[in-house]
Write a structure and sequence with these properties.
This protein is of the alpha/beta class. The protein has 13 helices and ten strands.
């Protein structure tokens, strides 16, 4: 087992969080839940479609309708949504009855993303929902000893410069706060610092400028080709005076095609572990899964969701202890 995976599972055990799973008929989920509860990684709860609490359903439907009626949602549609274990789980998380949810073994990413977007609160600092993957590449000295964050590989098809900047900052924040990795963020392109031009390159350059102006905590650079971002020798030839080139551990892709293709190629050709997608940009934590996931993927996504819930509880307790200004 990769050292990072061991560390994440141990962190999750420090304060037990309740995580729900809406795919109670999936054998992989059932096995993962059994292991999670046995090892006390979280308090894992299966949501059975035939055993949903009608009182919760009514409460959730009323809230869902009030927030979505301006988009044309009827109350009947809101009520029907709460018959779906996925939406029911998301609302349990929104209301604080549980600490997070993990789904995607059977639900598509688009369905998990919609439930997250419609039911959970968006983080005011980014205002977009996106995702990242943790890539664990064996026998690799690049990145963080073979550990990388890839983003976005699952949500926004063709992000704007502003959205790319938010993806970069969200991913760096996740890496720092949850994985204890010092972020070095590369905004990827087919160009390295002016080797090519055009609107696609301009979009990346603008994203870098926006990301830098919006934060002073993380090293973010671009535009960079993948080899310039990863390989010190290539960076020395192609890029001068970059704080990231040759040592990037967070890779931000220009669009969903590039991100999704690259992560699946890395996973299959380099025999890498891909943990996630981890949903970013919501106040309440949740994780998506690939429908090709295995039991370990579910366990590790659960551990990450639990750690994020721990951090949220800690941050909220700090805020409650802050002195109030009169």
């Amino acid at each position: 087992m990769h050292d990072l995976v061991k560390e994440l599972r141990q962190k999750a055990k420090k304060s037990l969080k309740k995580i729900v799973f809406p795919e109670s008929t999936d054998e992989r989920v059932l096995s993962a839940v059994e292991y999670i509860n046995k090892e006390k990684i979280a308090e894992a709860v299966l949501i059975d479609k035939d055993k949903l609490d009608s009182k919760y359903q009514e409460e959730f439907a009323n809230d869902f309708f009030e927030r979505r009626k301006a988009k044309g949602l009827t109350f009947q549609e809101a009520r029907e949504s709460m018959e779906d274990p996925l939406y029911y789980s998301a609302m349990l998380t929104r209301f604080g009855y549980v600490d997070g949810f993990v789904a995607g073994a059977q639900y598509t990413t688009s369905k998990v993303v919609r439930a997250s977007l419609y039911c959970l609160n968006l983080d005011e600092s980014t205002r977009i929902l996106t995702s990242c993957l943790i890539m664990l590449i064996p026998d690799c000295s690049l990145g963080e000893a073979g550990t990388f964050i890839y983003a976005d590989c699952g949500v926004i098809p063709n992000p704007s410069s502003e959205q790319l900047a938010s993806i970069a900052i969200s991913s760096a924040t996740f890496a720092k706060s949850i994985l204890s990795i010092e972020p070095k963020v590369a905004m990827l392109s087919f160009s390295s610092k002016g080797s090519s031009g055009g609107k696609y390159v301009d979009k990346i350059r603008d994203a870098v400028n926006i990301a830098r102006s919006g934060n002073n905590k993380f090293l973010i650079d671009g535009e960079l080709q993948a080899d310039s971002a990863l390989i010190p020798e290539v960076a020395a030839r192609k890029v001068k005076d970059s704080p990231v080139a040759g040592g990037a551990n967070i890779l931000i892709f220009p669009n969903l095609d590039a991100g999704n293709i690259c992560y699946k190629l890395t996973q299959r050709l380099a025999k890498a572990r891909a943990i996630g997608p981890i949903i970013l940009g919501t106040v309440e934590p949740c994780s998506d899964l690939s429908r090709g996931c295995n039991i370990d993927d579910i366990i590790d996504c659960t551990a990450i969701t639990a750690i994020r819930a721990q951090k949220r509880s800690f941050d909220n307790s700090k805020k409650s202890c802050e002195p109030k200004l009169k």
